[in-house]
Amino acid sequence: MTAGLFVCRSCGQSDLNSFLSLGRTPLANALLNVGQLSQKEEIFPLDLVFCPDCTLVQITETVPPEKLFRDYFYFSSFSDTVLENAKKSAAQLIERLKLNKNSKVVEIASNDGYLLQYYHRNGIPVLGVEPARNIAKVAVGRGVRTVSEFFNRDLALELVSQGDSADVIHANNVVAHVADLHGVVEGIAALLKSDGVAVVENHYIKDLIDQVQFDAIYHEHLCYYSVTSFEHLFKLHGLTLVDVERIPVHGGSLRVYFQRADGPRSLEKEGAVRVRQLLEEEAAWGVHKLGFYRGFGDRVEKLKHDLVNLLYQFKKANKRIAIYGASAKSTTLLNYYEIGGDTLDYVVDRSTVKQGHYTPGTHLPIYAPEKLLETQPDYVLLLTWNFADEILEQQVAYRKKGGKFIIPLPQVKVV
């Protein structure tokens, strides 16, 4: 099945293969206040396609970035796991590249300064680029210099003219989000110093497929990358893949390193073996063939059957069930599985920004995690399963009182 008139965001190929449709869903982070509960919510198609030319997996719908990102609910610093990953990444690069007070580190989609703060504390000049104005204010309050704009080539050239060329550019979980894909990568190439390093982190399509992580598919995530598709995209803009790591964050991610093809590539010698090995592994997996992705929808449906049936049995036994995590992932899972207030009581989330709101589509109230101890539900459906270790450790008191967690992926289990 082809994707109609849609063309690949990376290479322009028009003969794309559809392999999963999640129907029409609300925007993943469009949390509601009480006054909006009676209003009609916007919903958009959520269909996944594969490009046989460059291997990029992507959705076909592009929601305007202004609608998605100008006022945003996701603050990175509420996750200890995300902070620890950022701290380690900064420390490694400071040592590896010998960064100092004369260096410059820029992050695209820098959120609340969760990453740049670790460079700032070491006396290294930083600049964040964050389009969500409410989040950029928090970063500035931390002493992290931040420009509240969407990143593209024009902004990059403006920054270069102001003396903000970068020794390091971080782009964590952002290249998946951008509608102006080529404008962003071209901007990275323009902003990077001749010997600079661009460090890009993103959810890995191999882990998404193998672990049935379909809940990572939502309208903010336009693209889903392999090393192969990353290399193809960045090469179009004069950037060479010089190193790669697989990291556990977000259920399995890639950290890829690029340097300018026309400059000295200091990381290429030590990273070449890792790059070649992972590209060869992807070829062996068949990441460039439709067969690698075929059957994914069937596995998603099996998980739906397993979870819905388990929740039905619990409700039949008069068990009370809450949710942990008012995440983007939860919006996809709850709306596609059609699980709502007839089964679930409420949601808790550590983010104070989300508390007091309601979930998109399902209209479940969001409280602080302390609500679990106050009401002691029998089960908690953990929809931020990618932070399971962190959350289970935080909820020791609830668990000691007999509370149990339901983890929905990659297979349904109760802990």
Compile the SSE list and pairings.
Layout: E1 17-26, E2 43-50, E3 57-59, H1 65-69, H2 80-97, E4 105-108, H3 116-120, E5 126-129, H4 133-141, E6 146-147, H5 153-161, E7 166-172, H6 181-191, E8 192-203, H7 205-210, E9 223-224, H8 227-235, E10 239-247, E11 253-260, H9 268-285, H10 296-316, E12 321-324, H11 328-337, E13 347-348, E14 366-367, H12 371-375, E15 379-382, H13 388-394, H14 396-400, E16 404-407, E17 413-414
Parallel strand pairs: 4-5, 4-7, 5-6, 7-8, 12-13, 12-15, 13-14, 15-16
Antiparallel strand pairs: 1-2, 2-3, 3-9, 8-11, 10-11, 16-17
Helix pairs in contact: 5-6
Explain what this protein looks like in three dimensions.
Strand 7 (166-172), helix 6 and strand 8 (192-203) form a beta-alpha-beta unit. This protein has helices spanning 65-69, 80-97, 116-120, 133-141, 153-161, 181-191, 205-210, 227-235, 268-285, 296-316, 328-337, 371-375, 388-394, 396-400; strands at 17-26, 43-50, 57-59, 105-108, 126-129, 146-147, 166-172, 192-203, 223-224, 239-247, 253-260, 321-324, 347-348, 366-367, 379-382, 404-407, 413-414. It is α/β, with parallel strands linked by helices and 415 residues long. The radius of gyration is 21 Å and the shape is globular. The two termini are 40 Å apart. A 7-stranded mixed sheet has the order 6-5-4-7-8-11-10. Strands 14-13-12-15-16-17 form a 6-stranded mixed sheet. The longest helix is centred in the last third of the chain and has 21 residues, at 296-316.
